[in-house]
């Protein structure tokens, strides 16, 4: 059956699972089917899991253990061994200490439930600490615990023995049990409670574990579809009742309180009519719905808060493809349910899946485009293309997917979208979005196709794409006028409520919300000349279509002028080029929008440097010249647009009026309801007749609506036809005045920009002079330092010469003199110093011993003794220094030899001669250095003169610039009000044209509605005729049957 193929086929979205698990997933899909005819459903409890097939136990447990080491402890009577059990609780590690008896008690309690638990090692009373015994027990304990964590009987055991042994908290128990298949749906809601605020901070991290993400996808894609196929039979008790002793995130008291206060999903359903997200409160949901909501919310939390590792796990398991496929599936189910119940409420994308995708977009950030490109390249295009039926009938789905594409529409995603064998499906997907009832989806589709054109990726399909984009632009211009507010134009889909207006306005703003998306719009707008060597292509080039679409989007987006500087420079040329008319007209409207934002004051500079023009003229130098070019271009383009549109509007209005007249005649002949006085007719004929009556009643209303819109459109078109495009004498005079003022400003601006150039040149010259002066000043300082150094060196040499000359004279004097008297005098002075030092030592000794210094005197106090001791030390140091000098002089005099002294004197004279020669050389170099210093000083004085002249020139240029700027500001202030009035008149004309185009579009829509009503009436009449003919055949057959009976015997009896 198809449902079976769907359930089994979901396994493709969970890759990298072992073969046993894949087989188990397939078996679960088969087991969920109703039994074949004559086959009784299986009864009784499930069989115990065989130890021979460990893979059948399901995925690897996220609770892992190992016993890496042990410790020997001293007991009261003997030593014992403690086994350190390390537990990985969904990636977070902790450890517990257990003894042999703890393992033995656990084994004894659980082996009754699961006889396949590995046996306990032998107990040895006096050898528990032996290394061999410990080495034997460690792996045995590990095998035992790992088997228990893979045994569903043990994990669901009512006393929670293994969980208590591991000290695992209740939230961890719930999450671990959720991994097991037998009661997974029961535990989905319990596991979802980890997102409760009181558990989220400490326990929700488990939801980001790879095993939980896999399990949630398994629940959504395999288990729940199998449960729905089962229809509740054979699993009702499992789906409605919790296990008797369930380990939940709360205690028993807390569970009762939670049951009284409600579930974490209290507060109503999160889906309404959209995507089958659920209806009212908790009581309105089935257990299957609650499990589904819990699994989706856990996935959303993991994506939003689990970090890059969780997102990689989700994406590696094809989670994006799985969720989008589920989104479309639910959309189809909701649409079928709405159609069966005749519910007119729109079918919306499932809110939790939408929230999940939004979380992925936000968490991935700049990397989302790369992620989405990978999704498209690995089958995403085929998946999205397969949902075209959902897009075309449910506008909200088309909007969601088109926005998802636009957010990721970087070059890498565009290439992935078209590459390979799915290029045909990709273009078919864009075609489905183009045909969507949602204008938001159509706008996104136009942008997507425009970007493909601008990226040159369509390879031979450019003209076909350009035709589609151009047609969409024309349609959007009529249904979404740029110069009309949402309240004036109504919602593009025909709605008039404020919510729809706000949604459309928010969508338009989101198109350029980030810089990369806005850059895509600019790339599309500049594509014709950007990809054509900076020259404008001819009118038939396909790139003009994406350019026109991007300019319409920018008009709706209304960005600040600085964001459009790159495009603005080319707009005048585009508006006056050989581009297609629509591209020229949109360029003119963009120029109008930019000129309307022109400030009344230029501010601090023509380039927008002051308060008035700050931001608006950023990056623009010649504002007046630019304004002149833009004003000519926009008026020419807008005048051409208005004149060309008049003929089209008149022809469209006349055609629609003729159609309305034709419809009026047709409706007149169909206004009377068919005669139903001979009721009852045949039942099927009665139903068709009643529907025909209903349609005929609505025909008059449709015709009235069309005639009303015809009157409104006629008024708007007449207004455009009678519109003055500037041909009056007053307006011509005003235009001449504007032109004169603008020409005057152009001359002033040209002078100002020239002087501004002079000022810039003066500033550059001043900087050059400053640098020259600085360089010359530096060289002069170096020359001055060289002169000073040379003079210092000469002075030092002269000092050395004088010293050498004195030394030579002194040595000759000493060589010819008798020094005995000097020696005797030095010896006598040394003896006197020694005697004085002896007396000082005696006084110091008395002070240290506390004796009086003079006979019969009194000892000094401590302070006076300290001061006296300091004086004695100073005097002793002075005597010691003098004695050293005298001893040195005595040694010198003792060692003097007249021949040696004469030789020393000659050496001093030779040094004097050598130093004199060096001094003369330095004096000659000093003259050169002084000459260089003079030259540098002269150059410095000349450069200072030039610098002063440059400063004066700069000041003069600044004054002239300031005067011209003031003159330009004054002229601008007097010109701008006139120009603003003229811009407002053009804006009013374009607005009225938009009203006429919008009215014509609404009239065409009303005419189309009239034709649809007439076609419905025609089809119903044909159906009535068919039913009448069938009834006639039945009546004829009945007549034949009745008349064929032989009544002659009866007639004879009566006769």
How would you characterize the overall build of this protein?
The structure is a single chain. This protein is mainly α. The chain has 37 helices and 3 strands. It has a 3-stranded antiparallel beta sheet with strand order 1-2-3. α8 packs across α13, α21 crosses α22 (439-454) and α26 packs antiparallel against α27. The relative contact order is 0.05.
Report a brief summary of the structure:
The protein is 70% helix and 3% strand. With 1055 residues, the protein is an all-alpha fold. It is flat and about 205 Å long.
Q: Strand order, biggest sheet?
A: 1-2-3
The number of strands is 3
Distance between the termini: 69 Å
Oligomer: single chain
How would you state the average pLDDT, rounded? 78
In which range does the helix fraction lie? over 70%
Overall 3D form: flat
Task: Characterize the largest beta sheet: strand count, sense, and whether it forms a barrel.
Answer: 3 strands, antiparallel
The helix tally amounts to 37
Q: Regions with pLDDT < 50 over 5+ consecutive residues?
A: 1-58, 232-283, 490-496, 604-612
Radius of gyration: 52 Å
Beta content: under 5%
- Which structural class do you get from the secondary structure elements? mainly alpha
